[in-house]
Amino acid sequence: MCTVSWAHQPGGYHLLFNRDEKLTRGRAFAPAVIETGGVRYIAPADADFGGTWLAANEFGISVCLLNGDARKVLSGVPPRRSRGLLLRDLAWASCGDECVLWLRQLDLGAFAPFILLVLEPDKSAIVAEWTGQDLTVDPAGDAYMPLTSSSFDAAGVRRFRLDEFARRVGLAGRTDSTLLYQFHSSHGSFPDAYSPCMHREDAETVSFSWIVVTREETRFLYSPCPPCRSSLSEQQILARAA
């Protein structure tokens, strides 16, 4: 249950992410700098399973994860690994193509369905989908923006959020980081399960992340609350690697 949007800029991009979760889930750990294979990346951590849903590294590569459609799984075999652990295997890629190469080499049969977004400077987004049986990769992923997922009413939620996004773009006549932030903070007519900033009795948008990549740095801004209720209170910065 999430909403992701992005906007390119010369030498980088803005990436915004609403994480929607059940209120019974543990409070996530704030983003921290982690080093793997000599590559530094920034990622928050899920308190229940130790994985993450979003990571950005010193090469300016970001990877983020949304839940896929569990109805596409034909077998009754439960997943053996949390999907959040997948990003730990990909977060230190030096480019989008390398990230996809590693993704193809992993045993994805251990994971439930997911959608993976890969962003890198000055290139179109890459969107990959694992259905539980098949992996598809689209290197022209900008056409999917914004991405959404929901276990409540996947089709209805996506339709509502796309309509809300289109309405805001139509009024503003542009798509930039300011509009994206307004979209992620919005409720439409009122806050509910369909609004981008989501609120239900048993679940809500539990955190908001904003990654800004420039030619000089990768900056990860984070709020452990819905964007409608708080400011960005956590920040981590990495200098861009050559």
Provide a short characterization of the protein structure.
The protein has 242 residues and is α+β, with helices and mostly antiparallel strands. It has helices at residues 86-90, 96-105, 154-172, 177-184; strands at 2-9, 12-22, 29-36, 39-45, 54-57, 62-67, 114-119, 126-130, 135-138, 147-149, 203-213, 217-223, 234-239.
Describe the structure.
It is a single chain. The chain has 242 residues and is an alpha+beta fold. It has one domain (2-151, 205-239): 4-Layer Sandwich (Penicillin V Acylase, Chain A). 17% of the residues lie in helices and 36% in strands. It has 4 helices and 13 strands. It has helices at 86-90, 96-105, 154-172, 177-184; strands at residues 2-9, 12-22, 29-36, 39-45, 54-57, 62-67, 114-119, 126-130, 135-138, 147-149, 203-213, 217-223, 234-239. The protein has a 7-stranded antiparallel beta sheet with strand order 3-4-5-6-7-8-9. Strands 10-1-2-11-12-13 form a 6-stranded antiparallel beta sheet. The N and C termini lie far apart (35 Å).
